[in-house]
Write a structure and sequence with these properties.
Strand order of the largest sheet: 15-16-17-14-13-19-20
Number of helices: 14
Shape: globular
Oligomer: single chain
Bound molecules: 2-aminohexanedioic acid
Largest sheet: 7 strands, mixed
Distance between the termini: 86 Å
Length: 521
């Protein structure tokens, strides 16, 4: 049963806590990817003038927000997480309607945002700095975190609440104000997320939402002279542009880009467990995760068994509207993505890979109303083929046969990306060797490449990013700068690096209360 559609939302940007009409007068639509007749909402197609208004509101809010005590900021986040928890079902339904992922996964996405909110809220009473000894007497040396000011957060559509939560919760926890440009495919999820933050007590203007496209709204967020740092998740191509602009402006950019993740299945693996993992990793979220298992690198001894089971089970996955119970694979996000995914089927065939399953746009019955692609499996794939090198971001996976563990690790490491890699093995030595040698920010043993938890850092090596990590106990590092503080209570000029080389005896103090004037024991 498909959920009854609510009437479309028509809204402006959300600036300074209020609806704000765009200067452009142009709009775009958000439609249900499972049924494009269902209009979710109409949103402004903003430009640089709208971004400027959002930055101005953020600057004003920043002045008092940065002075709000950290524990108070934490309380706001905790309340927001609690509100999301109360409304988890409603938010998940909205997400399935706007983005397409099946309802249980949408619940997982909301849950990841809740987890992040609770986790970061605790930083309100735990945002430790350091106190270290000074090289000089009667001098104190310590650090504290400070916010950047106004920061830009630009997020993708595939995790419409979890990814904004990874960025916005720690950004505001650290005292920043935010200009948020969510993906044009999931604007309503973004708006609901920010409304909840404000309902929880976030002052207006601390987070401002500007809707629109990357070319105008996103670009303006990156280029604005008063956005001091940019947090971006998206494609490598756009990430490079963001990084170039930020580089010229000496602005921090934190980039989470693509992946071409692999599951390695060695001869000693539990094959059924590996098939379970591959199905979930490759076809969960219709393959639309940066972490999706889009390569399956399988050792010869288990190749036949693994392939037969995988193809058999993938063929039985139920494709459909993610709001319908029993559906396992939802639509892909839009028609452009659908075409792109299909083009890779042609590329794989032309390269000489064997199409074992799927490979077509799914149009049966009600599927014709949405953007559906059949779960697709290629066999006989070589590591250098384009379908094994390029991010497809759809329900397509490639089985790459390898003779031994060395070849498996080499194939796993052979792409430009380094987000998530996994190994299935029951041999302790093989597992630890893989942990050591796999070139990725995230490594799994006997689990697929998807499913990172928020208490560990998330991010990748090589072209997956530019050296940053989100979430985990270092999450605040991305969103704050260190201030080092020296307090000299000696009452005289003490010269670091110079007075320390003169021997232990310090010159007499002008301060009669100093230790030197105390009587000897
Ligand atoms: C993403 O696809 O960009 O590890 C994020 C996972 C999720 C997050 C994915 N927790 O698959």
């Amino acid at each position: 049963m498909t959920a009854v559609a609510s009437p479309p939302v028509e809204t402006g940007n959300h600036i300074g806590g209020r609806r704000s009409e765009s200067h452009t007068g142009r709009t775009f639509e958000s439609r249900n990817p499972a049924n494009t007749d269902d209009l979710v909402g109409v949103f402004p197609q903003s430009d640089a003038r709208d971004v400027d208004a959002a930055v101005t509101a953020a600057k004003t809010a920043f002045d008092s927000w940065r002075k709000t005590p950290w524990p108070k900021r934490g309380e706001v986040l905790l309340r927001a997480a609690e509100l999301m928890e109360q409304r988890k079902d409603e938010l998940a339904k909205l997400m399935t309607r706007e983005m397409g992922k099946v309802l249980t996964e949408a619940g997982g996405d909301v849950q990841e945002a809740i987890d992040m909110g609770k986790f970061i809220a605790g930083e309100g009473r735990r945002a430790f700095g350091e106190t270290v000894p000074s090289e000089l007497r009667d001098k104190w040396a310590m650090t504290m975190r400070q916010p950047f000011g106004v920061v830009g957060c630009i997020t993708p559509w595939n995790f419409p609440m979890a990814i904004p939560a990874w960025k916005i919760f720690p950004a505001v926890m650290a005292g920043n104000a935010v200009v948020f440009k969510p993906a044009e495919d999931t604007p309503l999820c973004a708006l609901r997320f920010v409304e909840i933050l404000e309902e929880a007590g976030l002052p207006p203007g601390v987070v401002n939402v500007v809707f629109g496209f990357g070319e105008d709204a996103g670009d303006a967020v990156v280029r604005h002279p008063h956005t001091k740092a940019i947090f971006f998740t998206g494609s490598v191509a756009t990430g490079r542009l963001v990084s170039e602009i930020c580089g010229r402006m000496l602005k921090k950019s934190s980039l989470e880009l693509g992946g071409k993740n692999a599951i390695v299945v060695l001869d000693d693996a539990d094959v059924e467990l590996a098939v379970d993992g591959a199905l979930w990793g490759a076809f969960g979220t219709s393959g639309q995760r940066c972490t999706a298992s889009s390569r399956l690198i399988v050792q010869h001894g288990v190749l036949r068994d693994f392939t037969d089971h995988l193809v058999d089970r993938a063929a039985r996955l139920r494709l459909g509207d993610g709001a319908d119970s029993g559906v396992e694979v939802g639509p892909v996000i839009n028609s452009a993505q659908l075409q792109r995914i299909h083009s890779y089927t042609g590329i794989g065939r032309d390269e000489g890979a064997t199409l074992l399953l799927g490979g077509e746009v799914a149009r049966d019955g009600a599927l014709a109303k949405g953007h559906f692609y059949q779960p697709t499996v290629f066999g006989d794939v070589r590591p250098e083929m384009r379908i094994a090198q390029e991010e497809i971001f759809g329900p397509t996976t490639a089985i790459i046969p390898v003779p031994d563990a060395d070849a498996a690790l080499q194939a796993a490491n052979s792409t430009q990306y380094g987000l998530s890699l996994s190994v299935y093995t029951n041999d302790l030595r093989s597992a630890f060797r893989a942990i050591d040698d796999l070139q990725a920010g995230i490594v799994y043993v006997n689990a697929p490449t998807i499913g990172a938890e928020i208490q560990l850092p998330f991010g990748g090596t090589k072209d997956t990013g530019n050296g940053h990590r989100e979430a985990g106990s270092h999450a605040l590092d991305e969103f704050s700068e260190w201030k080092s503080i020296y307090i000299d209570y000696s009452g005289r000029l003490q010269r670091a690096q110079i007075d320390t080389t003169k021997g232990e005896q310090a010159p007499p103090s002008h301060n009669p209360h100093r230790a030197e004037s105390a009587p000897a024991e």
